[in-house]
Amino acid sequence: RAKQEGRNTYRLYRADMHAQDSQRLALETALRNTAETGDGLVVHYQPLFDRDSGQIRGAEALVRWQHPTLGMISPGDFIPLAESSGLILPLGEQLIDVIMGQLRAWHQAGLDPVPVAINLSPRQFWQSGLAEWVGQRLAHHDLPARLVGFELTESCLLDQSQAAAAILRGLQSLGCFTAIDDFGTGYSSLSYLQDLPFNELKVDRTFIRRLNDGTRSSRAILGAVTGLASELGLTVVAEGVETAEQLERLKPYQIDLIQGFLMGRPSPAATFADTWLAPRRMTADDASDR
Ligand code: C2E
Ligand code: MG
Ligand code: MG
Ligand code: MG
Q1: Nearest to 73 by CA among 86, 83, 62, 84
Q2: Is 260 in the pocket of ligand 1 (CB under 6 A)?
Q3: Please, what sign has the CA dihedral across residues 160, 76, 262, 120?
Q4: 3-class DSSP state for residue 116?
Q5: Which of 53, 101, 143, 186 has its CA 20 to 30 A from that of 93?
Q6: Which residues, given as ranges, of the chain have pLDDT below 70?
Q7: CA atoms of 228 and 149, how far apart (whole Å)
Q8: Model-level pTM?
Q9: How much distance in Å is there from the Cα of 52 to the middle of ligand 4?
Q10: Which atom of ligand 1 is nearest the CA belonging to 151?
Q11: What is the dihedral of CA 187, 193, 196, 198, to 10 degrees?
């Protein structure tokens, strides 16, 4: 009997493994198709506001994947597969074109686009020729570089800060802005802030959430990080602001921009534009447009 049970168990296990493998393969095949054609790539935009004036200052582009049968998949559920399979490279290129195309479309529709931050995963960041490629795409879409920036997490930077600095400088010298994302979650080192050319620091939302505990150490850490970043001339962003109470608690800190569900959720491009983008004023530039 034991032998039989063992055999059954073995078979079940095999069947299960097979199901998982083929599921993963099917997902990867569908993702490859999206990476090649761009079909199914959906970008949502979440606004960032000036903490003191309440004015909109930018947006973050957040990708979703519209799967043919599974519906809308969030980035946490497919970016890791994209990254491990290498599909993140063609996918990321499609994505940058979608976002730049959107900025151009807003401009052409008579709206005043805000700067948009694009998330980069490690493989994208380290792909050789990144800045040159971005420069080409900006020219192709006829966009000013100041409308586009890049966010990366500390996992992009590990042990490679010299080389990372060169890539960041490449992006900055195009005129794009650079941001360190989810600061404080990885192997955070305050020395990154001195060594690496970032324009912006985004304090991870766990720090904002921890303020709710009201502990002295949470306040001390947030105070130190925002104080130093601000002193170094970085734009400081608080992400994940969900409640009016949290916003109130942020008051004593040197925070420039705020982002979170309280002020605005990520939304499809059309909704974002209707809600947040102002009509564009004519400028000398427009007048000289052919
Ligand atoms: P992230 O770059 O830190 O993006 C912020 C995430 O926090 C987004 O989740 C956003 O929807 C969510 N968020 C914003 N405000 C709040 C809030 O008040 N409360 C809470 N609880 N969450 C808030 P999302 O869209 O699921 O993205 C998750 C992560 O996936 C991103 O984290 C980013 O690391 C990655 N990701 C998103 N889009 C892209 C992309 O185009 N390329 C790459 N490589 N990664 C991306
Ligand atoms: Mg981000
Ligand atoms: Mg973030
Ligand atoms: Mg985050």
Answers
A1: 62
A2: yes
A3: positive
A4: strand
A5: 186
A6: 1-17, 188, 283-290
A7: 22
A8: 0.92
A9: 22
A10: 2
A11: 110
Q: Is 242 in the pocket of ligand 1 (CB under 6 A)?
A: yes
∠ CA(112), CA(118), CA(119), 5° rounding?
160
CB of 63 closer than 6 A to ligand 1? yes
Residue located nearest, by CA, to atom 35 of ligand 1: 75
Please state the separation of Cα 95 from the chain's center in Å: 12
Decide whether any atom of ligand 1 lies within 6 Å of the 181 Cβ: yes
Which residue type, as a one-letter code, is found at position 214?
G
CA dihedral 183, 186, 187, 192 (to 10 degrees): -30
Count of residues making up the chain: 290
Q: Which ligand is nearest to the CA of 260?
A: 1
**Both tokens of residue 24?**
């993963």
Phi, psi of 147 (to 5 degrees): -80, -5
